[in-house]
Amino acid sequence: MIDWLTRVDPQHPFLREADRVYTYGESLREVDRRIRREPTVVRPSLDASSVFDCLAAMCGGGGVFVGPGVEASAAEDLQGAAAVLFTSGSSGAPKGARLTLMNLETASRASAEHLGHGSDDVWLLAMGLHHVAGLSIVVRSAYIGGSIRVVSRFTPATAVEAIRADVTMVSVAPTMLQQLLDHDSGPYEGLRAVLVGGGPIPNGLLERAVDAGLPVLPTYGMTETFGQVATLKPGGPVAYATHPLPGVELRTDVAGRIAVRSGQVSPGYIGEPDRESDWFTTGDLGEIRSDGTLRVLGRADTVIVTGGENVDPERVENEIRALGIPEVVVVGLPDKVWGSLLVAVYTKGSPTTVEPLLSERLPRFMIPSRWVQVSGIPTTELGKPDRSAAVRLAGGDDR
């Protein structure tokens, strides 16, 4: 991996932090002096030093990248992995995905070919380096010879400032995009792509972003594939769908779960044997249309069974948001009669106004039986709803 840094003009900028610019030559020296032969546990911050630590770990004996609340040991056999990244844990315990150098290179090459980004582009780095959303930006930029602008944490103000400075490529979760537009409605110029992924995209958000001059591209990926495997192709009309990246095959099984086959796919999880099949079956539901595009429908493990009917909570949430309750997460609480009762956890708005309108859009079994108002919707670090925490807020037990 260190070869990636040597094949670029040493005077070309690699990392920009506030007013400081690190060239490829300077970055190579920083990385080289930090390399260790043994596996390394990295607890990175969002700063230049952590970027160099991450690259050094992957160039050496491999890096185990961990965030708050995750315990990991460098003594564990990484089984040939350049990086071990933990899944988000939004619907279960985090698992450490083993990612090889081939996985990283395949993912970086596919991204560059699909999006067309290159050495002249500057990616905004505003998401944690212990997550694939952040680390993949570093890796794909180093691979293609591009640049990164890092901010210490995401806020709408810091993101807008970076975008208006020199950023050309952005990757955000839907909640981050919404916050950015609320802070500054544009117009924005100079951006080539804004990838939007990591969770369901509320109806109307992409259109609002396009009106502000943001070239938004829905994207789909996961820790096990080192990020995006499907992204809407640049230059076309706005759509809530994605196109497979070069070298990526997609299919759905009989239950509607998305499966991926690609050189990007991790061979397995830390402490477990390699998976036997070339196909990795995800926990996401989707449909592959006749034109080859993928539409992600939600998480298979969040489906709530009530009265013998299956309810996709994300569909219900989108309808509730469209009717005037902007922040909501729908969960199921155990019930002796129905199996589960639907509960909507929300921050502001009027359920009494929304419920009659909701019954015109959804079947009766999809209408929440209870509404619980809270001060804030719990989320993971990447802005995804933390459904386990929401169950507790609703009065249930997530154990």
Strand order of the biggest β-sheet: 3-4-5-6-16
Identify the CATH architecture of the largest domain.
3-Layer(aba) Sandwich
- The average pLDDT value, as a whole number, equals 90
Derived from helix and strand composition plus strand pairing, the structural class reads alpha/beta
Q: What's the assembly state of these chains?
A: single chain
Distance between the termini: 42 Å
Low-pLDDT segments, ≥5 res: none
**CATH class term of the largest domain:** Alpha Beta
Output the CATH homologous superfamily of the largest domain.
ANL, N-terminal domain
Tally of structural domains: 2
Globally, the shape reads globular
What does this protein structure show overall?
This protein is an alpha/beta fold. It folds into 2 domains: 2-299, ANL, N-terminal domain (Rossmann fold, 3-Layer(aba) Sandwich); 303-394, 2-Layer Sandwich (GMP Synthetase, Chain A, domain 3). 27% of the residues lie in helices and 26% in strands. It has 11 helices and 23 strands. Strands 3-4-5-6-16 form a 5-stranded mixed beta sheet. A hairpin with a 4-residue loop joins β14 (249-252) and β15. The protein is globular, with a radius of gyration of 21 Å.
Give the topology, please.
Blueprint: H1 2-6, E1 13-17, E2 20-23, H2 24-34, E3 40-42, H3 48-59, E4 63-65, E5 83-86, E6 96-99, H4 101-115, E7 122-125, H5 132-144, E8 147-150, H6 156-165, E9 169-172, H7 174-183, E10 193-196, H8 205-211, E11 216-222, E12 227-231, E13 243-244, E14 249-252, E15 257-261, E16 268-269, E17 280-288, E18 294-299, E19 304-306, E20 309-311, H9 313-322, E21 328-335, E22 339-346, H10 351-358, E23 370-373, H11 387-394
Parallel strand pairs: 1-8, 3-4, 4-5, 7-8, 9-10, 10-11, 22-23
Antiparallel strand pairs: 1-2, 5-6, 6-16, 11-12, 12-13, 14-15, 15-17, 17-18, 19-20, 21-22
Helix pairs in contact: 2-3, 4-5, 6-7
